[in-house]
Design a protein that fits this description.
alpha+beta; Ribosomal Protein L22, Chain A; five-stranded antiparallel β-sheet; four-stranded antiparallel β-sheet; 32% strand
């Protein structure tokens, strides 16, 4: 059962010694995921329930890598997750079917996000891109998606309700960004994943 639990992990990343990231691809049926997770969750939408379970299992796999016991995940009033028993640092989760991602940073709060590259994002780009960002991404759908994802990862570090338009993103290269909000700055990397983008703070 343990081997079955971790087979859907298709990629692990460790950009720093203090950071562990796992990416889970949902290939299982809902019943299989429920059996692996072993807990009852009250979410009626099947896809959302699968995403919920897979993201927790991704964090559990991170715990397995770093030798930390998985004690479950809770969320504060702003939806920021925390891992029971983790004394320092923080965690972050995200999902966009069929992918779920989990991240543990043993030193600092962190943010991770996964987004599907989809032309529909152009309909809302004016809501989160500023003039400078619009200028350097142009009509590049993947570029727009990366900026959206970087802002989401930054938002998750802060753990407060922040309009994405207020987060300023500077592109250092194709997969490395600097984000700025509330007089703070973060470095964020992106990874391409089969028509999706994963971003995470470093």
């Amino acid at each position: 059962m343990l081997i079955r639990c971790y087979m859907p992990i298709i990629k692990t990343l460790s950009p720093k010694d203090s950071i562990t990231i796992s990416i889970w691809k949902i290939d299982e049926s809902l019943n299989e995921l429920k059996n692996v997770f072993g807990k009852s969750i009250n979410i009626k939408n099947e896809i959302k329930l699968m995403e919920h379970i897979a993201s927790r299992l991704a964090v559990k796999y991170c715990c397995n890598i770093i030798g930390n016991e998985y004690g479950g995940i809770s969320k504060d009033d702003n939806g920021k997750p925390s891992l029971s028993g983790l004394k320092n640092g923080g965690i972050s989760i995200s999902h966009k079917y069929p992918y779920a991602v989990g991240m543990i940073n043993l030193e600092n709060n962190c943010g991770i996000d996964v987004e599907r590259v989809d032309e529909k994002i152009k309909r809302i780009q004016n809501k989160f891109l500023n003039d400078k960002e619009m200028k350097y991404v142009g009509d590049d759908i993947k570029g727009i998606t990366k900026i959206w994802s970087v802002k989401e990862s930054t938002y998750k570090v802060e753990g407060e309700t922040i309009p994405l338009a207020k987060i300023n993103v500077i592109r250092e290269d194709d997969n490395f960004f600097k984000s700025e909000i509330n007089n703070k700055s973060y470095f964020v990397r992106t990874v391409d994943l089969n028509g999706h983008v994963v971003s995470f703070t470093t």
